[in-house]
Amino acid sequence: MQLKPFRLTLLGLSLLIPFALGAVVLFLLIFSWQAIGFNGLGFVSRVIWNLGDLYDDPVTTRGVLVPAGANYGILVFIAGTLLSSAFAILIAVPLSVGAAIFLAEIVPHKIRPALSMLVELVAVVPSVVFGLWGIAVLVPFIGTVLGPAISKYLGFIPFLAGGDSGGGYGLLAASVVLALMITPIIATTLLDALLQVPKENRESAFALGATHFEVVSKAMMPMVRTTLVGGIVLALGRALGETMAVLMVSGGGLNILPHSIFSPISTIASFIVSQLDSAEGDPTNMAVRSLAEIALVLFIITLLTNAGAKILTSGGFHVRKPKQ
Amino acid sequence: MSVSLSSSTPRPGRSAQEIRRIIFGRIGWVACGLALACVILPLLDIVWVVAYNGVSAFSPKLFTTSTPPAGVGLWNAIEGTAVISLVAMVLAVPVGVGAGIYLSEYGNNRLANTIRFLSDVLTGTPSIVLGYFSYIVLVGGLGWGLATPAGAVTVSILIVPYLARITELALRQVPLAMREAGFALGATEPTVVFKIVLPTAASGVLTGALLALAISVGETAPLIYTAGFSSYPLDLTHPVHSILHSQIGYLTYVIWSFIEQPDAASHALAFAAAFLVMLFVLAINIGVRLSIKRN
């Protein structure tokens, strides 16, 4: 076979991408190996994250040297991650479905590009700017208006109590910011799919006497359902790994599971940023290794989510053919 | 909505069921319109709040002095963001564009599909995971310390998949006939790629590079534990040493850390930094979208 140096050079450059990904996974695994052995499976089910006594002599526990009393559990952060992302999806799905339908059906052709560009631009605002807006606008609003109102009128529902006592930082603020950040992902995916629905399907529904809204909700939406779910899972993947905005508005809850939408929380991603400073104080390095294990857990969660989105949206053409 | 067929009486005008369907539709449209407003209005509010507070914090000193305690401005952060982003682009563009060329020109095989898939996986990896990887491997393991190289390498890992994907899409737009014409004239593969395909798709590749630049300017999480932070600008008497070995400031860090301070002056700096970052990111994204539309 003829050797082609040009192709080989380009191939070498492209292989750097899988190489980088492999290096990330491999080194996180190697670095956290001791922590994985020390923490065991209980890592994901223990509530308390305790660095132990960093100033006393380390003790040997389960074969490795760790600070006395060290206990690493991340259930609180897993709960924070899953809850904030789940609430974000709950808020974002109706908003983005409504926005996409309105853009596809009602907005005149001439201003649709401008409005859909505005929706897309929401996605490019840096995470930290969302966090800043959250601190400046959203958190005070939740703390003084929304929180007390929800607790006053809906406080009898267990998970909605306690809004009048906090400052606004917490699960709700994190979920709302996340919802804003992922809305454009779902909305643009759905809008593209709605615009691809064949004219014949719309016209047949109209010919049967359906109102315009029924055409959309009963003839068009079922055709794009798979795409919509794919977009939602993609958005979920983004929400699970979001760091800065959540870190800034979530209140940084530790060692206690959230018991209301106003509870302070930490997500896996935000916890890594907020704890590295303290973890560096551990002379045995076990805290830094456990944080690497957390990063690995986050990587696996987002990988599975994104793979799910990939499977749902694969096939190129995003509109499902109606069943015969 | 369940359709009831019980109303068999002759209908003068519209039946109650028809009216119900029409009202239901009206309510649906109003809800959809409100949903769109709920998506767009927060963006406008973000732009307004950041621009209003940011512009009120503007003064000449913002661009001539550095962040407290060194001064009362943002010079170190502006300089640092520029340095980190430029170094990251210098590292990422050859790799990303090269990978894009390979995937577009020679990428109809299983290996290329695997690279595409893993590239998507890398795109979906949370940036903090990449940042933590760099912290343990580059900063600690290789002993680079908190400085520009570790930060820029992390950002470049983050943007290479975007560059590769957008380059591939842009090159695939170039008609096959143009390549065939080149080969028919006896051109070699590098000649066809560099003299025919890349120039034709230049605007698409440039678009990708600009979007990647916008991403790198707006990132925070992967830099905190790789680039560190410094309230002082680079030491221009030893620029190379300074870039390689000293911690460096950047705008997104100022936004995150200064808004948490109790005093109004720090808040003003955070908003000014946010305004600069947002202006840059939005300008690139709006410009790119408008120029795509015009072509």
Separation, N- and C-terminal Cα atoms of chain A: 50 Å
Main beta sheet of chain B, described? none
Mean pLDDT of chain A: 88
Helical proportion of chain A, percent range: 55-70%
Distance between the termini of chain B: 45 Å
Q: Largest sheet of chain A, order of strands side by side?
A: 1-4
Total individual domains of chain A: 1
Largest interchain contact = A-B, 83 and 87 residues
CATH superfamily of the largest domain in chain B: MetI-like
- Name the CATH class of chain A: Mainly Alpha
- Rough outline of chain B: flat
CATH class of the largest domain in chain B: Mainly Alpha
Helix-residue proportion of chain B: over 70%
Measured by DSSP, the beta-strand proportion of chain B falls in: under 5%
Runs of chain A with pLDDT <50, length 5+? Answer: 320-324
CATH superfamily of chain A: MetI-like
Q: What's the total count of β strands of chain B?
A: 0
